[in-house]
């Protein structure tokens, strides 16, 4: 089956619905960020909600496009604000004059976006209109790829190229590249990066640097970035802030994200509760192997979290109903798609209490060669998982990121 392809001009005004069929808004634009030697990456949509406010819909929350409508899991309740490195395809790109390789000019009348993987969209083909050759009718049309045309002849935009390079680098390398910039330049780049990319990069920096960058952002923007961070990383960062600043940002965050962060802040730093993340993959026992693998394949799921799924009784968001067990992805691969995950539980994996010491969690991960261990409360409800990268962060010296950030010479 070919990857879904959608023409952007046809998205304008398309209805956006939640999975239950309730209308939650309509599309106003498509948000992209540049990449080096590749078509721009689609990061989300601008949606006008039912209160006529323009908000951001992350592309990862888009469930389907078809029949002139979109299905999405949720949209933000904050006004959309365009970052310096972002381009709106309808407002900024359509209608732009471009130059083809043969030197002729054309107008970009439409373009398509295509899904290259789960939640991974990019600009695909450009629909171009050349100047008319006679007194009547329209000029001929042509199709081209993004890098087959010159979009702004003779213009070089250093910031756009820098942002494109940061989009392509692994988060840890992008963090190092940002820290090599002059102070003012680093802050300018932080302001222009998309919320999710800045969140990824901040997670790879020392707390002092994280706080320095967040303090330079307006409160609303800082809260947006914290929303995009893993809850445990956001909790660690807020814990290092002055109490009043941290509380201000928690109040501005998405209520569900803030609730997870507040829960993590209540645990001691040297306990399983203080180390865990609250967003594991959770399924019911009657879910199928096919459903489990589909969740694991989502691009936004970290590799350590994708290594296993947790099976619980309802509800299926932490804190869940009673924890039943875990299933590793390797075991999922050995069974047919219609097999129920409740029959595949690994009976050798025992959960730990949220009050369990970090040292005991480390011993359990090492003893059983685990990538993650489930964490439950005294009632046996799943509250999160501790992953191997959480433990490594805990075991390394507090200043290990600062050592990585030291000037190289």
UniProtKB/TrEMBL annotation:
CDD domains per UniProt: CBS_pair_Mg_transporter
Keyword entries, A-Z: CBS domain
Key word tRNA processing present: no
Gene3D superfamilies named in the record: CBS-domain (3.10.580.10), MgtE N-terminal domain-like (1.25.60.10)
GO CC terms in record: membrane
Keyword Electron transport: no
InterPro entries found in the cross-reference section: CBS_dom, CBS_dom_sf, Mg_transptr_MgtE_intracell_dom, MgtE_N_sf, MgtE_transporter, SH3_actinomycetes
Stretches assigned to the CBS domain: 276-344, 345-404
Molecular functions per Gene Ontology: magnesium ion transmembrane transporter activity
Pfam families per the UniProt record, alphabetical: CBS, MgtE_N, SH3_actinomycetes
SMART domains: CBS, MgtE_N
Protein name per UniProt: Magnesium transporter
Native source organism of the sequence: Agrococcus sediminis
Lineage: Bacteria, Bacillati, Actinomycetota, Actinomycetes, Micrococcales
């Amino acid at each position: 089956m070919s990857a879904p392809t959608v023409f952007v001009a046809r998205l304008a005004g398309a209805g956006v619905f939640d999975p239950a069929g309730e209308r939650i808004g309509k599309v106003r634009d498509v948000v992209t960020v540049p990449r080096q030697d590749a078509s721009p990456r689609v990061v989300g949509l601008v949606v006008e909600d039912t209160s006529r406010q323009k908000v951001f819909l992350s592309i990862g929350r888009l469930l389907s496009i078809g029949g002139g409508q979109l299905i999405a899991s949720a949209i933000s309740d904050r006004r959309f604000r365009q970052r310096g490195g972002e381009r709106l395809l309808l407002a900024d790109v359509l209608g732009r004059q471009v130059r083809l390789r043969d030197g002729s000019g054309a107008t970009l009348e439409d373009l398509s976006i295509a899904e290259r993987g789960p939640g991974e969209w990019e600009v695909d083909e450009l629909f171009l209109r050349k100047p008319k050759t006679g007194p009547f009718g329209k000029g001929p049309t042509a199709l081209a790829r993004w890098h087959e045309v010159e979009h702004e002849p003779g213009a070089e935009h250093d910031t756009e190229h820098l942002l494109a390079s940061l989009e392509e680098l692994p988060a840890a390398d992008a963090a190092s590249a940002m820290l090599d910039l002059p102070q003012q330049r680093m802050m300018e780049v932080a302001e222009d990066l998309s919320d999710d990319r800045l969140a990824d990069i901040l997670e790879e920096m020392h707390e002092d640097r994280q706080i320095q960058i967040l303090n330079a952002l307006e409160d609303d923007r800082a809260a947006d970035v914290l929303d995009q961070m893993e809850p445990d990383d956001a909790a660690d960062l807020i814990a290092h802030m002055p109490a009043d600043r941290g509380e201000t940002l928690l109040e501005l965050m998405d209520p569900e994200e803030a609730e997870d962060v507040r829960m993590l802040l209540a645990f001691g730093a040297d306990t399983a509760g203080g180390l865990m993340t609250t967003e594991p993959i959770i399924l019911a026992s009657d879910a199928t192997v096919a459903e489990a693998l589909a969740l694991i394949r989502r691009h936004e799921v970290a590799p350590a979290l994708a290594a296993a799924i947790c099976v619980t009784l309802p509800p299926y968001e932490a804190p869940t109903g009673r924890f039943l067990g875990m299933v590793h992805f390797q075991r999922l691969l050995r069974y047919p798609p219609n097999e129920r995950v409740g029959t595949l539980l690994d009976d050798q994996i025992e959960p730990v209490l949220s009050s369990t010491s970090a040292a005991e969690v480390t011993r359990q991960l090492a003893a059983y060669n685990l990538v993650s261990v489930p964490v439950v409360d005294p009632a046996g409800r799943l509250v999160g998982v501790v992953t191997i990268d959480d433990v490594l962060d805990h075991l390394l010296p507090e200043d290990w990121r600062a050592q990585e950030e030291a000037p190289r010479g």
